[in-house]
Specification:
The chain is 45% helix and 30% strand. The protein is an alpha+beta fold. It has a five-stranded antiparallel beta sheet with strand order 1-2-3-4-5. The N and C termini lie far apart (115 Å).
């Protein structure tokens, strides 16, 4: 004699189980997509390049500001800052002319203060460790008699990465205006 075995729920749909299965598959798919996206972003060379560009810009703006700021009352500190902001031939020029320049500033008793208005990296060779920046400054010079003058200036700087830090290796005035034709 056979006994009929009755299966519970046989033939009836189970909506909660189906919903749970669908939600699990959707969550798994989303996790896989997000993980792959995160991995790509973490290993993207463009992010590292952008970080180097930002580091070069920040160091370049600071170094250009340092080289345009000097107080006759804190001359040694200011000139030390100049030297720590530079490398290569520019550093050698500043170090060799330091005493003569210090004498001129002490005699003139001036205070110059620079403020960066804007800056941009114009070239970056991350592998070679070289960059160029364009920095707009407002330089305020206070004379011994207390008279102040403001001058806006655009500077072109070349940076070299030395021991993992960006330092100025050349600095000059940027040309202003267009070129004439004719």
């Amino acid at each position: 004699m056979r006994r009929a075995v009755r299966l519970l729920g046989a033939g009836r749909p189970r909506p909660l189980l189906a919903l749970a299965l669908v939600l699990t598959l959707v969550a798994g798919g989303f996790a896989a997509w997000a993980g792959q996206d995160w991995y790509r972003a973490a290993h993207d060379d463009r992010a590292a390049y952008a970080a180097q560009r930002d580091a070069a810009l920040s160091a370049g703006e600071q170094a250009v500001q340092n080289l345009n700021t000097l107080d006759h009352r804190e001359l040694e500190r200011g000139l030390d800052l100049w030297e720590s902001s530079t490398t290569g031939e520019l550093h050698e020029q500043l170090a060799s002319g330091r005493d003569a320049f210090a004498a001129q500033v002490k005699e003139a008793k001036t205070v110059s203060t620079a403020r960066v208005l804007s800056g941009a990296v114009t070239e970056l060779d991350d592998r070679a460790g070289r960059a160029r920046v364009l920095v707009a400054l407002r330089i305020t010079v206070e004379a011994a008699d207390g008279a102040k003058t403001d001058k806006d200036s655009r500077m072109l700087g070349e940076l070299t990465r030395t021991d993992g830090r960006w330092k100025l290796s050349a600095l000059g005035q940027a040309p202003v205006g267009g070129t004439s034709t004719g």
